[in-house]
Recover the amino acids of this structure.
């Protein structure tokens, strides 16, 4: 008898060959999710770093630089030692020793850092040719700063130099000046300035060159701004007495000559921070480093290198604190988007594993019945999934690292690894839970007949309780609370989905009975099929509802940010554009502006900013308008709309009717009010209406009157308020001709985007909304593809019984609609409820307006109809489209054509 050889086919290879489409779909899902998960922390790092670097760059270098000052050492030291301490050699050695003492992560930009000696007490110089605006002599500061040749271009003359060794007794030195200093102080090459001496003749400073800074905004020139730009100083306690203050740049070797002046020379080392090495995740360490420099161990180390009396000052700590406040207002909102999108992605991954386990239920049950152990079955499923998920997760991580270089990789790797682990374990764990007990035959498990277990009820109630706690936390503490508050929108979506899953069978049962009485069988059959959907198919409903809620919340946040900026810009400008001058506008200007392309309406107003009612010291704004034009403008902008008739011509008492702010109305009531204008004239005003705002001015104190009742001087327009689409700022400025300033609402709106933190957070929110919508569609497609083979077989059987193609298409569509319609309606309702519940705790002011001064106190979250309706409608359309395509494709297959019996075309 021949021996029969036993051949074992590897499990993983066999499964991949059997279902290559499912394997590719899982790989694509894992790669995409891992890429998004890994990209999120890197994107946050990038825009937070950009925000910190922008904050430091926008601050003045004299604020962000670390300035190390050391006065003269012991005055009793020998003169030679004092002079040697000011020479470039010792100063350079100390500079090189100071750099390692700067604590990390604060790095020094060596190209913009410098050192030298300068006077701290500018002295008046007697040279009569220097400008004297008020008869007061100009004051001059002397500075011998290292690196002048590398940071300046000689416009005329040459750089200063020394002849021999300079000492405190040197009588003459050479200097250079910046081009701005030369222009303001009338200095030329060859000019001689006599700087006062200490007990001897003045120090003669001959100007040998005029310099143009190569980087005028860099820390080298702007760390001590006087070196580049002179200042016109107003004498304290006076308004008109002024004098010029400028600086002369000596050669570094000439620094000892400053000891012969009474101007108190000091040594200094100016350390500019390297902005490209500043990272937001190091913010706490950066603040600690700055604190150490200002009064900690770093200061002591620098004093040991320079002098015990060395002082260190910087404003970098204030910049870091302001940035930390801005970041603290933006981060919680970004966390809400991250937790929401992450929850949706996790639900979809778990749903994919659950649907795969449900599709292979019969296969796995048969293996268990034939003796497969639960551990062995789970291990094989884990290996099968890991072979697909691990390379896909690595591919997604690699794509994220390459797409967003330069950020930390640790958090990105952790996020991608988490996604991969969830994808690997979803199928094995779901299969282990479903097949822990060996069953030969399972009873009906459709959604209309299965009763939820007590364990499931406890879990659902726990999730509902957690969701309620999250909502209450967010309402009380805002988004700046703990992570539970950031999970609130996603938890509300999960709780609503669980409730809808419970309610899902009820409408199906209610509709099945009347549908049975209809003549056609398609309606009744479709409802029966929808009611017999597997209970595990409710997972897509959970994914859909969570995704729709997250997308609706994120879309409303973006719409709220845009709305807050639009409203703030409208309050600031008063219309789509504003043309305003400091004096009455030329008479022909309104006509020129009106003819500018894009202008739809124009309202001319005269604004008196210092009107005083009843001769009070507190002033208010009085606005003279044309009632008809201004009323139309107020109606279009929504700022204090009123009827033109409310601004009637003077009454019998001669008073002008006025629209007043609530503050003015509460102070003066409805009695006749005399108002003194800036030209000394007086006009009688009587309040006819009260409005919270008005286009011409913003604030609490204003009166709007008919300018026809004002005198000729007060009635002349000082501002033009324009409305229109696609207004051309350049054309408006050309029409104004320099006689007035032009402000556009669009330009004002752009000013509120003050930091990369804002734009970066908005991009993250937009990506979260897109990802939520994408996962919603993906969840729907996965659920429809899961049921596709069963529906194809059903159509094949029904076609043998005479079902037409139209009826088959209608059957698939009606069968798919209940779950899609329920998810869409539930998503809209849940999104609306979530926004209404959470809006008291969500403050969009920081992300919308940052630190800009605006008339808006708080930007609130409001429901955005488009964010609610578009994803919901898309879900229904995709459902109908996929069902129709499946019916069409099934009708074209040869097997279906062979199974048809008696179908007459």
């Amino acid at each position: 008898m021949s021996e029969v050889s036993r051949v074992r086919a590897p499990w993983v290879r066999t499964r991949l060959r059997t279902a290559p489409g499912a394997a590719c779909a899982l790989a694509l899902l894992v790669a995409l999710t891992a890429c998004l998960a890994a990209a999120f922390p890197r994107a946050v790092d990038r825009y937070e770093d950009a925000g910190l670097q922008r904050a430091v760059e926008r601050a003045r270098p004299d604020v962000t630089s670390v300035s190390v000052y050391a006065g003269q050492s012991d005055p009793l030291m020998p003169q030679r030692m004092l002079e040697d301490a000011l020479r470039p050699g010792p100063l350079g050695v100390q500079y090189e020793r100071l750099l390692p003492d700067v604590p990390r992560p604060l790095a020094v930009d060596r190209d913009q850092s410098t050192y030298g000696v300068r006077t701290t007490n500018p002295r008046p110089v007697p040279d009569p040719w220097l400008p004297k605006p008020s008869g007061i002599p100009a004051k001059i500061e002397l500075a011998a700063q290292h690196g002048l040749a590398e940071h300046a271009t000689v416009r005329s003359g040459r750089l200063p130099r020394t002849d021999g060794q300079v000492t405190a007794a040197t009588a003459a030195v050479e200097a250079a000046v910046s081009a701005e200093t030369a222009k303001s102080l009338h200095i030329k090459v060859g000019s001689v300035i006599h700087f006062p001496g200490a007990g001897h003749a003045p120090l003669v400073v001959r100007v040998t060159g005029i310099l143009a800074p190569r980087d005028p905004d860099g820390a080298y020139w702007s760390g001590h701004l006087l070196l580049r730009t002179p200042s016109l100083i107003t004498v304290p306690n006076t308004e008109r007495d002024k004098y010029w203050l400028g600086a002369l740049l000596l050669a570094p070797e000439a620094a000892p000559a400053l000891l012969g002046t009474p101007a108190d020379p000091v040594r200094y080392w100016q350390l500019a921070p390297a902005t490209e090495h500043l990272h937001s995740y190091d913010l706490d360490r950066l603040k600690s480093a700055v604190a150490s420099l200002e009064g900690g161990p770093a200061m002591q180390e620098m004093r040991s290198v320079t002098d015990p009396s060395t002082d260190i000052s910087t404003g970098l700590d204030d910049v870091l604190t302001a940035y930390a406040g801005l970041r603290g207002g933006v981060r919680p909102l970004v966390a809400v988007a991250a937790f929401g999108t992450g929850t949706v992605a996790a639900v979809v991954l778990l749903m994919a594993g659950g649907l795969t386990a449900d599709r292979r239920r019969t296969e796995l049950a048969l293996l268990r019945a034939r003796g497969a152990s639960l551990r062995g079955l789970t291990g094989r499923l884990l290996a099968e999934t890991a072979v697909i998920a691990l390379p896909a997760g690595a591919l997604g991580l690699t794509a994220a690292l390459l797409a967003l270089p330069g950020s930390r990789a640790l958090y990105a790797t952790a996020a991608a690894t988490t996604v991969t682990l969830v994808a690997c374990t979803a199928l094995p764990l779901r299969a282990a839970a479903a097949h822990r007990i060996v069953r030969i035959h399972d009873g009906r498990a459709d959604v209309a007949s299965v009763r939820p277990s007590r364990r499931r009820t406890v879990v659902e109630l726990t999730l509902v309780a957690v969701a309620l706690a999250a909502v209450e936390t967010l309402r009380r503490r805002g988004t700046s609370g703990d992570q539970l508050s950031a999970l609130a929108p996603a938890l509300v979506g999960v709780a609503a989905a669980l409730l809808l899953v419970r309610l899902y069978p009820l409408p199906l049962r209610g509709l099945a009975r009347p549908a049975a009485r209809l003549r056609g069988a398609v309606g009744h059959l479709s409802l029966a099929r929808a009611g017999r959907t597997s209970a595990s198919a409710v997972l897509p409903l959970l994914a859909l509802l969570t995704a729709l809620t997250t997308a609706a919340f994120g879309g409303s946040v973006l719409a709220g940010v845009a709305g807050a900026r639009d409203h703030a810009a409208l309050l600031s400008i008063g219309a789509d554009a504003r043309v305003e001058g400091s004096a009455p506008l030329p008479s022909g200007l309104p006509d020129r502006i009106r003819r500018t392309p894009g202008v739809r309406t124009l309202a001319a107003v005269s604004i008196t900013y210092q009107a005083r009612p009843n001769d009070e010291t507190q002033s208010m704004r009085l606005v003279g308008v044309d009632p008809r034009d201004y009323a139309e403008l107020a109606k279009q902008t929504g700022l204090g709309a009123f009827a033109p008739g409310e601004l009637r011509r003077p009454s019998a008492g001669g008073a002008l009717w006025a629209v007043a702010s609530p503050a003015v109305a509460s102070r003066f009531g409805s009695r006749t009010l005399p108002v003194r204008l800036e030209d000394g004239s007086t006009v009688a005003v009587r309040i006819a209406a009260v409005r919270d705002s008005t286009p011409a001015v913003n604030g609490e104190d204003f009166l709007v009157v008919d300018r026809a009742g004002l005198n000729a001087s007060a009635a002349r327009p000082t501002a033009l308020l324009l409305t229109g689409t696609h207004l051309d700022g350049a054309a408006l400025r050309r029409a104004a001709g320099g006689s007035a300033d032009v402000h556009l609402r669009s330009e004002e709106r752009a000013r509120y985007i003050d930091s990369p933190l804002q734009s970066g957070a908005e991009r993250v929110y937009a990506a979260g909304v897109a990802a939520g919508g994408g996962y919603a569609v993906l969840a729907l497609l996965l659920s429809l593809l899961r049921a596709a083979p069963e529906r194809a077989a059903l159509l094949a059987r029904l076609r043998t019984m005479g079902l037409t193609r139209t009826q088959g298409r209608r059957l698939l569509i009606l069968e798919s609609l209940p779950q899609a319609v329920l998810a869409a309606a539930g998503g809209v309702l849940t999104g609306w409820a979530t926004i209404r519940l959470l809006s008291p705790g969500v403050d969009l002011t920081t992300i919308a307006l940052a630190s800009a001064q605006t008339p808006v106190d708080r930007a609130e979250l409001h429901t955005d109809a488009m964010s609610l309706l578009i994803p919901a409608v898309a879900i229904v359309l995709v459902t109908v489209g996929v069902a129709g395509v499946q019916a069409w494709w099934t009708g074209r297959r040869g097997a279906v054509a062979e199974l048809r019996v008696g179908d007459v075309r």
Summary: DSSP finds 31 helices and 21 strands in the chain. Residues 756-800 form the longest helix (45 residues). The radius of gyration is 39 Å. Residues 582-739 form one domain.
